[in-house]
Amino acid sequence: MGGHLNVNHLIFLGHGALWTVGLSVIALVGGGIVGFAIALARISPLKSVRLASAAYVQLVQGTPLLVILFLGYFGLAAIGLQVSPLVAASASLTLYVAAYLGEIWRGSIQSVPKPQWEAAEGLALSRTQRMLKVILPQAIRIATPPTVGFMVQIIKNTSLASVVGFAELMRSGQIVNNSLFEPFVIYAIIAVVYFAMCYPLSLFSQRLERRMGRGRVNLAPA
Amino acid sequence: MSIQLDFPAVLERWPSFLGGAVLTLELAALATVLGALLGTLAAVGRGTHSALIATACRIYVEAIRNTPLLVQIFLVYFGLASLGLKFSAFTVAVAALTINVGAYTAEIMRAGFEAIPRGQIEAAEGLALSRVQIYWHIILLPAVERVYPALTSQFVLLMLASSVCSQISAEELTAIANYIQSDTYRAFETYIIVAVLYVVLSLVMRAGFWGLGLVLFPRRRRLGTPL
């Protein structure tokens, strides 16, 4: 209808791909900060903090990201808070990623062998010192492979931000498709670009896992 | 600025919400059963001696696991249409979700196969079990028992991911929510209710799988631990 796929369309898709990377970084950093707090809250000595953070994780992990995005975009607008697609997508993804990273990291912190915790306590380290100097350096090693694996999920999940009109790769593809109407070609190109972003990370994660000597199944939200 | 929430205005549409939840469960159940079959076949295929089949299965698994579900759904939807095949959106949704969850199932099942000790297979051979018997009793069933928790979490994630099918206007919970919110202008209330319904659905599925596990794996029930 609107002619053929040309270099301008590809440049437009390239911009979309850059925004996909940008949104993924925002989600990773935001979700990482909140997720770290969640991980610490899940093993807090205070029961109320533990319960509240567990409830948060259960709620978010039991809700589709799409619904969280709709809540962040249409929902906040409906109660009078006008937010841009970028803000809505960043906030929703941050909350979503935090719940998953929080659980991954809690598992990593808790899988540091018990004697390490006891030895740190025996050396009269404070709670903060024990965490920073003994537990976290070891937990980071355990947490790296699953975290890199989860980055693949983050990149894939940013495609859902297209539904609130944020012009990342998927949305750019839809816009180009609206003018050319060659859906199969365009979505195939999009799929290839996503694959090119995700596959190296997947391989890297697998390599890290093998080096750690613990083959684990990569559980992933589709 | 005052925020007014009006849940009763949205809650009076409860039959639609309930219908949507049932449709989502149907969609998830169909894709789970078909995806489990497809995934198991792909996992078996990856372990065969034929390099061609093994490579094809590997490409399938990696291609699906490294692209977003939304793109896959659009590709299936428009791909079938460009071949001149007309299917309902619901059928396309089932097909796309099956292809998607099949790849994740294949990866989980492969881990299960690899965890079967070599000696057990040799022992079965020594007892003159046929190839089919070995595959069924020594490899497949113990592998499923071992990876059952990972499989079930994957299927719950599939149910949640099925919300993406609303984008090709397949009838399910999120699509119905989109309709209700555009009809009532009560977006926040609608999506809160839908979020609660999804949490309930995922709890129901978890409970169902837990019960099913007790029935399917008597050894697990008796010992209280997997294998």
TrEMBL record, chain A:
Domain ABC transmembrane type-1: from-to ranges: 17-205
GO biological process: amino acid transport
Keywords: Cell membrane, Membrane, Transmembrane, Transmembrane helix, Transport
GO molecular function term, any single one: transmembrane transporter activity
Record-annotated membrane-spanning stretches: 17-41, 53-73, 79-101, 184-204
Bilayer topology annotation: Multi-pass membrane protein
Pfam families: BPD_transp_1
Locations listed in the record: Cell inner membrane; Cell membrane
Main subcellular location of this protein, as a coarse class: membrane
PROSITE patterns: ABC_TM1
GO cellular component, as recorded: ATP-binding cassette (ABC) transporter complex
Family membership noted in the UniProt record: Belongs to the binding-protein-dependent transport system permease family. HisMQ subfamily.
Family annotation (NCBIfam families): HEQRo_perm_3TM (TIGR01726)
Entry protein name: Amino acid ABC transporter permease
Species for this entry: Bradyrhizobium centrolobii
Organism phylogeny: Bacteria, Pseudomonadati, Pseudomonadota, Alphaproteobacteria, Hyphomicrobiales
From TrEMBL, chain B:
Main location: membrane
Subcellular location as annotated: Cell inner membrane; Cell membrane
Gene3D superfamilies linked: MetI-like
Keyword Protein biosynthesis: no
GO molecular function terms listed in the Swiss-Prot or TrEMBL record: transmembrane transporter activity
Residues spanning the membrane: 20-42, 63-81, 87-106, 190-217
PROSITE patterns xref list: ABC_TM1
GO biological process: amino acid transport
Keywords attached to this entry: Cell membrane, Membrane, Transmembrane, Transmembrane helix, Transport
Residue span, ABC transmembrane type-1 domain: 21-209
InterPro entries in the record: AA_ABC_transptr_permease_3TM, ArtM/GltK/GlnP/TcyL/YhdX-like, MetI-like, MetI-like_sf
GO cellular component annotations of the record: ATP-binding cassette (ABC) transporter complex
Pfam families in UniProt: BPD_transp_1
Membrane topology annotation: Multi-pass membrane protein
Family, as annotated: Belongs to the binding-protein-dependent transport system permease family. HisMQ subfamily.
Name used for this protein in its record: ABC transporter permease
Species this protein is from: Bradyrhizobium centrolobii
